[in-house]
Write a structure and sequence with these properties.
heterodimer, A: 289 residues, MetI-like fold, B: 460 residues, alpha/beta, D-Maltodextrin-Binding Protein, domain 2, 2 domains, 23 helices
Amino acid sequence: MSRKIIPYILLIPTFLIIIIFIYWPAVYSFKLSFYRISPFGNRMIFVGIRNFKNLFHDPDYITALKITAIYVSVSVALTIFASFFIALLLNMKVPGTPVYKALLFIPYAISPAISGTLWSFLLNPVVGHVNYFMSKFFGLRVEWLTTKPYALYAIIIASVWKVMPFDIIFYLAGVQNVPDDLLEASTLDGASTWTRIWKIIFPLLSPITFYLVIMNIISFMFSSFAIVDVMTRGGPGNYTTTMIYKLYLDAFAFQKTGIASAESVILFIIMTIVTIAYFYFGERRVHYQ
Amino acid sequence: MNVFHDDIISVLNLKNFYRGGFFVKKVLVVLMVALAVLSMAKIKIQFWHAMGGWRIDLIKSMAEEFMKLHPDIEVDVQYTGSYHDTLNKLIAAVKAGNPPHIVQIYDIGTQVMIDGGIAVPIQDLIDKDKSFDLGKFMPQVLNYYRVNGKLYSMPFNSSNPILYYNKTLFKKAGLDPNKPPRTFEELLEYAKKLTVKDANGNTIQYGITWPLHSWFFEQFMAVQNAPLVNNNNGRTGRPTKAVFDNEAGRRFFRLWYELTKNGWMINTKKEDWDEANQYFISQKAAMLITSTSDVAYIAKLAKQHGFELGTAFLPRPKNAKSGGVVIGGASLWIIGGHPQKEIQAAWEFVKFLTTTKMQIEWHTKTGYFPVRKDAVETLMNEGYYAKHPNMLTALLQLLLSVQNYNTNGAVIGAFPEVRQIIEDAVEKMLNGEMSPEDALAWAQKEATKAIQEYNEVYAY
């Protein structure tokens, strides 16, 4: 066999798996998004783009879009900045750093459902620790998971806590690689710590930030599901119902396969736009060494 | 090994194959042996259920008992997650052409299952089985699962809500522990008296709690003898609209709102049964409304936590019509598309689960109602109800309920979505976004939309 064919033959197994488990379902959900389907799939009616039209006329879906936008942007910003600073702190040679590192990385190893459960315990209004301390020190008690706007705060706190270690690992590796002579030179030139962080370290790490922002958007948009499901079930009302949670409800709680497929197509389009836009605009401002 | 090896060689070697004779004979012998083994093999049936926690072992032990009696049948029992998950797995399995034989589906999935057309209606099996007497079953339970006069599935775990209350805390608050609240008005008064605050003004003990679940709305509508949807609650035809925006609905929404606004009630997140149980057991709430399926569990924990438990019927608004409670829980469906022998084995197993002995075991260990009258009779004669008054409360509330379309429960295809809408409305009301009246009107409008959307698929 010629050398040209062999690589393709070797790739066949991989492609088969990808096609069966990723491309085929994706194409199939595009198709389903144009149908109304009974729960057991025994009836299918072609409705054209009516599923999409209905969605954009559905105030609940519009709310889900808005909530997702707020939730994702706030969470991404918080995660990026918090993990950057924690990475800087971890990079200082203080005694016990390995212990702090271990403690900070633990959330990454915990499954989203478990972390949601842990936060539900902590934020329980009557027996939770957070309220215990808040009422002790400030005489305040908040129903974190069932009232507005605290439910959204709770979701954001839990998600950021869960995703942060991933970012810290990347930033820590980046911070450790910043050349010492650069920092030394700037210190000699009289730059303050603050300036050093923002004018030297942060720009040098911009490729990492660039990568992390995209990864974080994806993880907040898609894997926020478990935390929402465990902590608030999308409530109060539909106040914490993100797009992915609404998709789950329509698909697996209400068995509306057609509409759920339309929602997944919309998510797909949004993600495509975000990625393209970010590469287009982000590319110019990123500093590659 | 060598024989097999030779076989493979001969299969691959076409020359040998065409020579025929010896090889063909060998294959025939192998086939016959295989057939004989297969025909002696046990009939295997799959049973999927949604009873989590310690009930997994209980159901397994029931299946083992069945297999002892029927050595030719092997029941593969699988816990398939929550009611939602089980229905989803069933749908996936049906689409993949590999469904289980028996599956436990929740009450509100009944219409979806009928519309799916995948089940063997239990009625058909009963009609063929001369030994089976449906007259021994509790009509209250059968009425729920009978749609258009036909019984589609076998009632298995049935429950309804009752009021649990902490007698010890009643005494502390100066209330008579033998006089639980009977009306909405009394409930408000009691909840107020049972709420305790600390020096900072923070509540340390709430009057009452129940899970934030649409089920309670549905029950309190039935208690006031009011329907949820048109066409006689969907029992004489597919419902086309929701009809719960009326005085009965408003009374319950207002009660919920009053209790919460005044800080006498602690609410959970959507459908969180455990959280409400926890508040009651840790004595952070003095009263609890929840399913009778937890009677045994709560009674045990109350003892451990050192308080006296009381149970009572659901309270009712003073001037409302008398209704009753609706059966909740799940039933067993036999899925078609299997060989007749396996369907018959599945039917044997379903029958076994509803025998008097099994029903007594199920009832006394969980608190779910027995679906048979003779199970109740046997337990009564044994003095069981005298020793377990809380079990009697649950049973009596059901038996004393008026039997009509309103208390038989609504049949709605889009029930899961209607439930979500009602829960959203309640949360919006409790968060002060909507008045009780507006929330109820909004819920009715949205529920009607969901019902009509569901019907569209079946319109032609």
